[in-house]
Structures are given as structure tokens and as C-alpha cells.
Design a protein that fits this description.
Distance between the termini: 63 Å
Radius of gyration: 30 Å
Largest sheet: 5 strands, parallel
Bound molecules: adenosine monophosphate, zinc ion
């Protein structure tokens, strides 16, 4: 069965076929590092993680590229508002690069704690200004730009497919028309490729360019960096649903306008939002939940991962402490079940493991197949989780097979089930070692007591017997020597 993904291009489920069989180029929009990631952002990265892990489990070699936005992202995606990085640096009394460095580290600390596998390539916007300038030059040479008020704009009217996503998102486009206030634009949907001094007098980071000293618009970084690392056409591009109508629409326009090749990207995967009871979660509006705030309230990052897997990535997911509590309990039952199985089986035989070991045997194989089918069906993690539970609850499945299959499933789910089992096995190994030391100590005390008796030091001999008795060890003398037992 092929992997089926909902492609925002075409708005339908489509069988996924990479351009080069067995190799997948995947670009996922990364964070703007002016603040901590909120738990909604982390939903996007868990979605990317599940997609990458699923492709790898199916034997694909995935090159996963993620950008770090450390320049040029304004609070409004359509070029309006403050520069997020500059504003954050001013508020914190730090330089833009210090802020970027701090929150980039915080971001990867969060993703690591959520067991999100790191991308193959992580690229910072500020390290790729020459690539952006080169791409903008190509767009300009192809006649898709104009200069106004010191900025260079993309002229959407010159690009026939502009707004390829828009039939569905027409409402967003009307909103753009309403909010946009940039008098330099010929059309409300035109967007900035390069800003010069016209936008912010206090812009911290500026570079020389053919259009004057300034800095890039936000969208161009994703086109420039994805093309650099994945080529002028590649397989999958992902991001949150909020990026469909502006950011990704503009990325497509400028990439295809530069290269003349289409489609730039074959499959577009967009995750729906995580929402709070109160509504939308937003980084710029402040008042958002971070992973650390969940940890401070007593939750493990994997509880949150489990919570996210319980929803399909294309459905809006409502966050509440109650449902996070439910996820925590469910995950505990899951690891308890794994531990119980691990205690029964002991370490798994060679080759039966979650690391690409032999395929699950017997009835377990049927659960594994159903699990894979669930993921093939547009990454249905809720159904995949249900198959894991089915497997673990089924008393007819041999425990070794059950553990092996659960570990295999966990290569995609990423709930660290192998660690839970290993904890049991390490504890089991540690116990005999402790006993061994104790036995040695008892034997040497028995020998010392025999020597003391020979030397008629009965006080010492009785002292040893008494101290062992205090520790629950009873000695018995016989003509063949002294034996011991636990009292
Ligand atoms: P940003 O750092 O704001 O550029 O956002 C990083 C990623 O998180 C993007 O893919 C956004 O589309 C996504 N995102 C933002 N808010 C949410 C949310 N509440 N739920 C899910 N994804 C989100
Ligand atoms: Zn992007």
C-alpha cells in the first residue's frame, strides 16, 4: 500500500510518490526565534516528526531541512507590523543575535525533550543572505518585481498561478485586502522581497544588496534555503495551516518565478492548530503555554507527545489540562504494560527489537500491519495508537512478539517504550549483582568465624553470628561446615 497524504495542492488525498524512488526531500518551516516555542508550535514539529519517521520506517532516505528565522519576520505575515526579532531584542535589552541564539537553543531543547528527531539540515536565515539575494535577482531578471519606496516587491499580477491555494482560502485573501496598509504596493497581495531603510530605521541586521542596504522579506528565506539543500524541485513542504494563504502561497510564487519550473513542491502537508479553551494560541500575543510550563505542572514532555498523537494532525485539537491529565494516565498505563511484558520476557532475543529487527511474528504481525495501514492513511496516529493498545491488551499474543512489535511501532510513535523495558531489564541485572556481593560477604564472615573459633576467640565468633542474625542471615553449624539461610 502506498502512503497517502492529504495534499493542500489539489485538496485531496494522494498517493505519495517521491521524485526519486526511495529518497525524499522534505522542508518544514522552522521557528522564528524571538521567544520560546509555544505548545501549538510544537504540534507542527511533532507532525513533521511523525511524517519523517513514517517515511523512514517505510525505507525512504529522508533529507529533512528546517530553517531558523532570525531575520525579517514581521508580526503580520503580509509585511505589516513590527519586526519580531528586533522588538524582542529591544524588550530584552539584548542584541538580535543573542536573542536568536538563546531561543534557538531553547527550541531544540524542547524538541529533544519531546523525542522529536532532529532535522538532517538546520539552516539559519542570516547565514543564507547571499542565496536569497541570488534568488531575488533571478526573480527580477524574469520580470516579476518592482521597486517602490525603497523596497523590492514581488508583483503577483505577473505570475499567472498566484494564489494556487486560494480557492479554499478566499476568505483569508479578502482579509489581506482589508488589513494591508502599505501604500507602495500595486496589489494588496504583492509582497516584499527586499526591504531597505524604508521600513525600520532601527533594523539591527542589514546587508548590502543590488537594491540598497537592507534585509530580506520573510518568505524568501524558505525558498532560498530549501532550493539550496533540496534542489529546485522537491517532494514535501510542511507547516501550520496558518501559512497556507500567505507564506506558502508567496513561497510558491517566488520559487517558480525564479526557476521557471513547476511544481516547485509536489506535496504540501499542513497541520491544523492546537487551540486553547479561550481560542487561538499565539506567540506574539504573549500569554501562551510552553513545554516548560507543562513540565512545571508535573507533566512529562512525552505526556504531551502522547496527547498530540491522540488527535489527527488535520483536525483542530483543543488543549485542556484535563485532557493532558488523561494522556498522562494513558501513557503511564502503556509503560506499565510494557514493563510487565518486559519482566515476563527478559531481554528480547537477538534481532527482535525496535531497531529494524526481524518482523513481528504470529498474531502480533497482524497488529503491526494494521498499525502501518493507519499511518499510510494520511498519518492517522489516533488509529495507530489504538493498534498499539490492541496489541498490548491481547492475551493471545506471545509476550516476546508483543514487545518486538510494540518497539517497532514506537519507531514512529517515539514514546520511548524501549527505555521503559530496558529500565526493567537493567534493574533485573543489577539485583543478582547485589546478591553476589552479599553472598561473598557472608562467606567471608563465615570463614572469619571459623578462624575465630579455632583460635578460641568465641566472643568474636558469637559476635559475627549475632551481627549476621541482625541482618536476617541465620547460620547453621554441622560436621560438614557452616551453612546459611535467610531468616
Ligand atoms: P512560528 O515560529 O510562529 O513561525 O511558527 C512555527 C510553526 O508553528 C509554523 O509551522 C506554524 O504554522 C505553527 N503553528 C503556529 N501556531 C500553531 C498552533 N496553535 N497550532 C499548531 N501549529 C501552530
Ligand atoms: Zn517557510
Amino acid at each position: 500500500m502506498p502512503l497517502t497524504l492529504f495534499n493542500t495542492l489539489g485538496r485531496e488525498l494522494q498517493a505519495f510518490e517521491p521524485r526519486n524512488p526511495g529518497k525524499v526531500g522534505f522542508y518544514g518551516c522552522g521557528p522564528t526565534v524571538y521567544n520560546y516555542a509555544h505548545i501549538g508550535n510544537l504540534r507542527a514539529y511533532v507532525t513533521h516528526d511523525i511524517l519523517t519517521r513514517t517515511l523512514r520506517r517505510r525505507g525512504c532516505e529522508v533529507t529533512h531541512v528546517m530553517n531558523i528565522t532570525d531575520v525579517g519576520h514581521l508580526s503580520g505575515d503580509n509585511d505589516e507590523g513590527d519586526d519580531k526579532m528586533v522588538k524582542s531584542a529591544e524588550e530584552r535589552g539584548k542584541s538580535v543575535l543573542e536573542v536568536a541564539d538563546f531561543y534557538t537553543k531553547a527550541f531544540f531543547n524542547d524538541t529533544e525533550r519531546m523525542n522529536i528527531i532532529g532535522p538532517t539540515v538546520v539552516c539559519k536565515a542570516t547565514d543564507h543572505i547571499p542565496e536569497m539575494i541570488a534568488l531575488i535577482k533571478r526573480i527580477e531578471e524574469n520580470g516579476h518585481t518592482y521597486e517602490a519606496g525603497g523596497n523590492l516587491y514581488f508583483d503577483v499580477k505577473t505570475f499567472p498561478h498566484y494564489g494556487i491555494f486560494h480557492s479554499r482560502y478566499a476568505e483569508d485573501q479578502n482579509n489581506i485586502a482589508r488589513i494591508d496598509a502599505d501604500a507602495n504596493k500595486r496589489n494588496p497581495q504583492d509582497f516584499v522581497l527586499w526591504f531597505t531603510k524604508s521600513k525600520f530605521e532601527n533594523q539591527a541586521l542589514v546587508w548590502d544588496s543590488p537594491w540598497g542596504r537592507g534585509y530580506p522579506g520573510w518568505h524568501i528565506e524558505c525558498s532560498a534555503m530549501s532550493i539550496k539543500y533540496l534542489g529546485e524541485q522537491f517532494d514535501i513542504h510542511a507547516g501550520g495551516i496558518d501559512h497556507v494563504s500567505i507564506h506558502h502561497t508567496n513561497e510558491i510564487a517566488q520559487s517558480e518565478a525564479a526557476t521557471g519550473k513547476e511544481p516547485w513542491v509536489r506535496y504540501w502537508v499542513h497541520n491544523e492548530f492546537l487551540v486553547l479553551d479561550k481560542g487561538k494560541m499565539s506567540k506574539s500575543a504573549g500569554g501562551f503555554l510552553t513545554l516548560q510550563s507543562l513540565i512545571d505542572s508535573g507533566y512529562d514532555p512525552l505526556d504531551y507527545r502522547y496527547f498530540l498523537l491522540g488527535g489527527h494532525y488535520r483536525s483542530q485539537l483543543q488543549f485542556s489540562w484535563d485532557s493532558l491529565g488523561g494522556a498522562k494516565n494513558a501513557r503511564r498505563s502503556l509503560t506499565d504494560r510494557i514493563k510487565a511484558l518486559a519482566a515476563k520476557t527478559g531481554p528480547l532475543p537477538e534481532g527482535v527489537s525496535g531497531d529494524g529487527g526481524k518482523a513481528a511474528a504470529g498474531k502480533a504481525a497482524a497488529y503491526l500491519t494494521a498499525f502501518d495501514k493507519a499511518l499510510e492513511d494520511d498519518l492517522s496516529t489516533p488509529r495507530a495508537l489504538a493498534e498499539l493498545w490492541g496489541l498490548l491488551r491481547d492475551a493471545e499474543v506471545d509476550p516476546v512478539d508483543a514487545l518486538g512489535a510494540a518497539f517497532d511501532m514506537d519507531r514512529v510513535l517515539g514514546l520511548k517504550l524501549v527505555d521503559a523495558a530496558q529500565g526493567v531489564w537493567i534493574a533485573a541485572r543489577a539485583k543478582p549483582a547485589e546478591d553476589g556481593a552479599l553472598v561473598q560477604e557472608i562467606e567471608s564472615l563465615i570463614a572469619e568465624r571459623a578462624d575465630a573459633k579455632k583460635a578460641k576467640d568465641f566472643a568474636r565468633a558469637d559476635g559475627i553470628r549475632a551481627s549476621l542474625k541482625d541482618r536476617g542471615i541465620i547460620l547453621a553449624d554441622s560436621p560438614d561446615g557452616t551453612t546459611w539461610r535467610r531468616g
